[in-house]
Write a structure and sequence with these properties.
Structural class: mainly alpha
Number of domains: 1
Helix content: over 70%
Largest sheet: 2 strands, antiparallel
Number of helices: 6
Shape: globular
Distance between the termini: 31 Å
Length: 144
């Protein structure tokens, strides 16, 4: 019997990534760090409640059935969302406390990761793959 893998349609993932990029750019341009709260709160809701309001709104604009789009693995997206939440929170805290270097470091990382993912290479996927490989090798090594 085949195992069902929970997934998210790619356009919804891309919309979330664009919101992250645009929120970071808006923060840099305006100096208003609270722009980061939009993707941060959506990401936290996605992680803790399985409900991302950005994706929920974007779902209304899908032209086809969600299953007709290229699927993105839900677990992988949760991992990526966790990384982005840490970076967005670090950026927001850095700017809010006047630690602009910290704010820039975190927002540059999350903006680059989201934009590169939009272009087709998922940094979070690469990190998770390497972690799973390492964990598997460690588990096999412990059995010998």
């Amino acid at each position: 019997m085949a195992e069902t893998v929970r997934s998210i349609p790619r356009p919804l993932v891309r919309t979330n990534q664009w919101v992250i990029v645009l929120s970071v750019v808006a923060t840099w341009i305006t100096g208003e760090e609270w722009n980061l709260a939009i993707p941060l709160v959506a990401g936290l809701m996605g992680l803790f409640f399985g409900f991302n309001p950005i994706m929920k709104v974007a779902r209304q604009f899908l032209k086809k059935e969600p299953s007709a789009y290229i699927p993105e693995e839900w677990n992988q997206q949760q991992f990526n969302q966790g990384i982005s939440v840490v970076c967005l929170a670090g950026g927001l805290a850095g700017y809010a406390f006047g630690w602009n270097t910290l704010g820039h470091a975190f927002t540059i990382m999350v903006a680059i990761a989201a934009f590169v993912a939009i272009l087709g290479f998922c940094i979070g996927c690469f990190i998770r793959f390497q972690y799973i490989q390492w964990r598997t090798k460690k588990r096999i090594g412990n059995q010998n």
